[in-house]
Amino acid sequence: MYSKKQLADWDKRYVWHPFTQMEEYMESEPLVVERGDGFYLVDSDGKRYIDGVSSLWVLVHGHGKKELIEAIEQQSGKLCHSTLLGLANVPSVMLAKRLVEITPEGLSKVFYSDSGSTSVEIALKMAYQYWQQKGEKRKKRFISFTNGYHGDTIGSVSVGGIDLFHKVYRPLLFRKYLSPAPYCYRCPLKLEKETCSFACVHEFEKIVQKYKDEVCAVIIEPVVQGAAGMITQPTGFLSTIWKIAKKNGLLFIADEVATGFGRTGTMFACEKEGIRPDFLCVAKSITGGYLPLAATLTTDEVFRGFLGKFEDFKTFFHGHTYTGNPLACSVALRNLELYNEENLIDRMKDKIALLKKELQRFYLLSHVGEIRHEGFMVGIELVKNKKTKKAYPPKERIGHKVIIEARKRGVVIRPLGDVVVLMPPLAIDEATLKKLIDVTYESIEVVTGL
After folding, report:
1. Are residues 376 and 331 in the same domain?
2. What is the pLDDT of residue 193?
3. Any alpha helices (H) in 371-421, and if so which ranges?
4. At what angle do helices 430-448 and 398-408 cross, to 10 degrees?
5. How many domains does the chain have?
6. Domain contains 13
7. Cys-Cys crosslink for 75: which of 69, 330, 354, 421, Cβ 3.0 to 4.6 Å?
8. What are the residues whose beta carbons fall under 8 Å from the beta carbon of 23, sequence distance 6 or more?
9. What is the Cα–Cα distance from 111 to 97, expressed in whole angstroms?
10. DSSP structure class, residue 172
11. End-to-end CA distance of the chain, in Å?
12. Cα pseudo-dihedral 271, 273, 279, 283, rounded to 10
């Protein structure tokens, strides 16, 4: 058994952490997680921490869920992996059938990959190739939204809208048309929510009318823009955008990597406004947080656009070594069965109500500017001046200081800049949820003062 110090030293020496400024990290005391237990992470000293962000938005039933572990064990005794290139395997077939049954109407084909980024990359490539093979050679662009985040691969970064993450790669990226997304607390059009008359929708429609002949598809995170700071869209925005896209013959990509599988309080965020996308991108919670897996679902119409003789070269030449991995598909199937067996979505309702009620008191804190909440997705935006909405200077690292304070109190959360994010496991019990909320409140209070 290695000591905590030895593990921390090796971590700093050998590991490059994602979305982490390593100069600062190497001066800090790393938290080395050794195991999980229900809704807690346990470090190498045995200290327990509430997993307040579901291990980056993936955990559903908690760590060590017996049924999910058994699903992996049972499948590993049969088949750990076989390629999906020209072959099938039982778990990938069964999972594809189940995904089509539970996702929005019209989606009928499932293409597997390994992460949210790749699920989006696939949708972009499919949409582009579909139009090219239909003879619509001008259709080479996409419409996406400000503050959008769709992953880290070149295609998914190209349709992203967060300069902090994407600006440095701009010379590598393809062009897209960027429409203003609603961020009512800091409206990009400098308007007020009560009187704006959905101006962002009108801007979107202008872009569509001007460029529709060269646009393949519209891509959006439905209902909540996660990585932007849990920015929630006003009711009606999503359905209106979808109707405009469909009226003008554009394909519609719903990126539900973060919002899918219950995070917003419905199985998929698309359900909230009854939209039927041409592509649905899912990952994260698809396996309950136990193995990497992603899927891109699309329609028969899109699928038929790729059919033909081999010499027609209409094949979708894309794939990953571990596409449709049997272990991941097996645990995903068992995960989805547990949603039904444990009535998970319905049981969330009382906890969502508790979360909503408890969050209201955060407005008593003088540096909480806005609280954004949809289902189990929460963003608490901290500001230097509540009246003027003035942000803290980045060098003050207020959000980071809050999560370090929370860690001292036995909670693991992660900020997006100065937005403190809560995304607990869907099955969390009310007592643990209440403790998570209390510790977050106390940590903000300690760091920012009353």
Report:
1. no
2. 81
3. 398-408
4. 130
5. 2
6. no
7. 330
8. none
9. 12
10. G
11. 44
12. -50
